[in-house]
Amino acid sequence: MLLELLRAQEIELHQTAVRHDPARLEALLHPAFEEFGRSGTVYSRDSIVAALLAESEGPAIWSQDYALTPLGDALAQLTYRSANLDASGRLSRFTLRSSLWQHTAAGWQMRFHQGTPTRRFAKRVG
C-alpha cells in the first residue's frame, strides 16, 4: 500500500545513517526537490543534501498521524506530525509536515517538503 511505502521512506529520511548517505539521499529526493523549512529557510536538493551531510547526530525524530492524499497517478501528498525525542522520551520542537512524492523511473521520490511549527501534541504509538 502506498501509505506504508511513503511513510517508510519519510521515516528513512529521519535516520542519521540515511541523512549521511549521499547516494540514498539522491535516490529519495527528486532532482527538482525543494523544501520550505520549519525555520523559513528555502532549500534546494543540493543545499539540503549538503546540510544533512554536514549535520552532527541530533536528537531522534518522532513522527505520527500519517495521512496520504493521492493527487494523481504519479503524485501523492503525505502529511504527519513530528517532534524531537530526547533520551528520556520527552518530545520537543513540534512540527506539522507535508511532503509531495512523485513517482518517477527511479521510484517514488520526494519532490517538495514543508515543516510548520505547531502546538504540543501527545505522543501516540500506532
How would you characterize the overall build of this protein?
This protein is α+β, with helices and mostly antiparallel strands. It has helices spanning 2-12, 16-19, 22-28, 45-54; strands at residues 29-36, 42-44, 60-72, 75-85, 91-104, 107-117. The chain has a six-stranded mixed β-sheet. The longest helix is centred in the N-terminal third of the chain and has 11 residues, at 2-12. The relative contact order is 0.21.
The parts where pLDDT drops under 50 for at least 5 residues are none
Provide the gyration radius in Å.
Answer: 14 Å
Strand content: over 45%
Share of residues in helices: 25-40%
Distance between the termini: 17 Å
Counting H and I runs of at least 4 residues, what is the number of helices?
A: 4
> What is the H-and-E element order?
HHHEEHEEEE
Tertiary shape: globular
Summarize model confidence as the mean pLDDT. Answer: 95
Largest sheet: 6 strands, mixed
Strand order of the largest sheet: 2-1-6-5-4-3
